[in-house]
Write a structure and sequence with these properties.
The chain is mostly helical. It has 21 helices and no strands. Helix content is 64%, strand content 0%. Helix 13 (246-260) packs antiparallel against helix 14. It is elongated, with a radius of gyration of 28 Å. The two termini are 41 Å apart.
Length: 437
């Protein structure tokens, strides 16, 4: 973000002005525990640098401890020294430094105000449990809400997306980790006020540091998984440009079906992988067949119909795919046993493959390509329902239809456009409804 957009600069300036206003009553705050403020500010700056450099995340327990220990106007100052230190991932710029200071300052001010309003300070001083959890929980909610509002506003300003879309899901995704940090912050504050003093309070941060490391490792592993998926999908898209974007949409439709069926999050993620990678075996099919104009010969079709087995072999060593490999292998099977590669029938076909088969056919019918026009969603669903029981699992078809009624669908053009003034390229569908190469 070297060239910061004007709207983003305005958002930074507004946040900075609000943070300054929050700190203005500081001289009137009585008393202000300057020693605790300085120590917490230095500790937050140190933890922020370590966590960002080592783990690439954020570390809020010290900030929230400040919200529980300090007056709101003093708590605003805790994140300021961290903003003055250089960032590991970017060359420091003035707007970025100001944002790094104003964003947590406003959040910790809101948390401190909420905590004070519920008389949380007395509960911390006297270690009154479980009552101390109530004001602390409310403070964590306020902290998380302000972060969500600020992050969504910045996303909308910098990337020019609607505010509603920018805020969607931010609060729910961030609440759980912030709540864990809030609990650590509360324990830090309670120990700080105890006879053991600040030194004992700092020991709470040790297990939190370990937790951050574990969490960062999980996210790195997840990022590696996503990179593997992207590389495979890009290779397929390059080889078979007619279906560019098809894999991602099949993954999206598979997720819609899985969620409608009430599957847990882990299975939903596996089905997303299955949908995205269902055609990865096309990497083993000669490009001339994938791009051939006109109908395929029986021999050429037999070669193309090997792509599920190729995909199954290609993904054999990718352990995190789990049952997604079964979907890659069997997504062209039919309930009546006339599909390929093994002619499985009915319940012999893995459930994940039956999900992907419906998602695959639906996107093939609703996507405009150079060899066929897109069908309306209602027409495609009617065709799936007509073939349910023979080709598709009626349960999966019903789940997709129900999900589409709830969420809708926006089909996209997936093929390269025809040359202006030239004839469209002709290709043929396969023998099954919505089938494609």
């Amino acid at each position: 973000m070297e060239a910061v957009p004007a709207r983003a600069r305005a958002c930074v300036a507004a946040a900075a002005a609000l943070a300054a206003l929050c700190a203005l009553p500081l001289p009137a705050a009585t008393p202000t525990p300057w020693g605790a403020l300085v120590l917490l500010a230095a500790l937050y700056a140190l933890c922020d640098q370590v966590v960002r450099r080592r783990f690439g995340g954020t570390f809020y327990p010290v900030l929230l401890a400040g919200a529980f220990l300090l007056p709101p106007a003093a708590a605003v100052l805790v994140p300021l020294p961290a903003a003055l230190l250089p960032q590991a991932e970017h060359a420091p710029t003035l707007p970025r430094r100001v944002w790094r200071a104003a964003r947590p300052a406003l959040a910790v001010w809101a948390a401190a105000r909420t905590h004070d309003a519920l008389d949380g300070g007395a509960a911390v001083d006297d270690s009154v449990f479980p009552y101390a959890l109530l004001p602390a929980g409310a403070a964590v909610l306020a902290f998380c809400l302000v972060l969500t509002l600020l992050d969504g506003a910045m996303h909308a300003a910098a990337d020019r997306v609607p505010l509603r879309r920018a805020w969607r899901g931010l609060f729910t995704r961030s609440l759980a980790p912030v709540a864990v940090h809030g609990l650590a912050g509360l324990m830090t504050a309670v120990l700080w006020r105890s006879p053991y003093g600040p030194v004992a309070a700092l020991l709470v941060l040790l297990p939190m540091g370990v937790s951050c490391w574990v969490f960062a490792q999980y996210h790195r592993e997840r990022a590696a998984h996503q990179a593997t998926i992207r590389a495979l999908v890009q290779a397929v898209d390059i080889k078979d440009g007619y279906t560019r974007g098809h894999s991602e949409r099949v993954g999206q439709a598979s997720v819609m079906i899985a969620r409608q069926l009430g599957m847990d999050d882990e299975r939903v993620e596996v089905l997303r992988f299955a949908g995205i990678l269902h055609d990865v075996g096309k990497l083993g099919v000669p490009t001339r067949l994938l791009r051939k104009d006109g109908p395929l010969t029986p021999e050429e079709r037999r070669i193309i119909e090997l792509h599920p087995e190729y995909g199954h072999e290609m993904t054999r060593g990718i352990s995190f795919l789990g049952e997604a490999r079964a979907a890659i292998l069997h997504h062209h099977e039919r309930l009546d046993g006339s599909g390929y590669p093994y002619g499985l029938a009915g319940p012999q076909i893995p459930e994940c493959a039956r999900v992907v088969a419906v998602a695959d056919a639906f996107d093939a019918m609703t996507s405009a390509r150079s060899y066929s026009r897109a069908r309306p969603v209602e027409t495609a669903v009617a065709e799936l329902e007509r073939c349910a029981g023979a080709q598709f699992d009626p349960r999966m078809v019903g789940a997709l239809a129900a999900a589409l009624r709830r969420h809708g669908w926006r089909p996209e053009v997936t093929a390269d456009e025809s040359v202006p003034g030239g004839p469209p390229r002709q290709r043929t569908h396969g023998r099954t409804t919505g089938a494609h190469r």
